[in-house]
Amino acid sequence: MTEEMRFQTERAFFYYQIKNQPFSEDLLKLCLYYERIEYQDIVILQSQLETGYYTSDVFLNGNNCFGMRFPKTRPTVATGVYKDHAQYAHWSDSVIDYALWQKYYLSRGYKIGGSNDDAFYLVFLKCVRYAEDPRYVSKLVEMSRRDLT
Fold first, then answer.
1. pLDDT tens, 13-68?
2. How far apart are CA 131 and CA 128, in angstroms?
3. How far apart are CA 88 and CA 44, in angstroms?
4. Which end of the chain is less congested by CB atoms within 10 angstroms, N or C?
5. Angle at 71 between CA 105 and CA 110, to 5 degrees
6. pTM, to two decimals
7. pLDDT digits 0-9 by tens, 57-100
8. What are phi and psi of 80, to 5 degrees?
9. Under 8 Å between Cβ of 96 and 80
10. CB 98 within 8 A of CB 86
11. Rounded mean pLDDT of the chain?
């Protein structure tokens, strides 16, 4: 069995195990790992900001960890719309959808670069207009500074 096959088997088993488990940030981090999402520290901050630290209605009732909207053109695993946001069967599906979003934009010519430069990813989020809030990136930066202290 190749390493990739082993990884995909482990990934499938992980998702099978958590399908009935409630949200936790530790499980979120594992989902980010299994989806091979880039810049995971920033993505965690995004989930905290978008959900009001996992207390928002869109998160609690729509299972949406990232404030994602239902996409018009890119692939999605969303099951519908809840309060103008994508709705998911389980919170882990919103992580899969974030991975699809990230891969979609990277395949459209947006390049993050070869290094793990968090500042570059913040610029990327601003360029693709991830959020309507003009202070979105500034808020993420402020949150990251609080995490460091």
1. 999 999 989 999 999 999 999 999 999 999 999 999 999 999 999 999 999 999 99
2. 9
3. 18
4. C
5. 10
6. 0.91
7. 999 999 999 999 999 999 999 999 999 999 999 999 999 999 99
8. 170, -155
9. no
10. no
11. 92
* CATH number of the domain located at residue range(s) 3-148 in this protein: 1.10.530.10
Mean pLDDT confidence for 109-118: 64
145: closest CA among 32, 76, 42?
42
Contact 95, 70 (CB under 8 A): no
DSSP alpha helix (H) spans, the chain: 3-18, 25-34, 40-51, 57-62, 91-107, 118-127, 136-148
- d(Cα 133, Cα 120) in Å, to the nearest integer? 19
Token digits for 81? 């719309």
Span between the terminal Cα atoms of the chain, in Å: 44
- Two tokens at 58? 């869109």
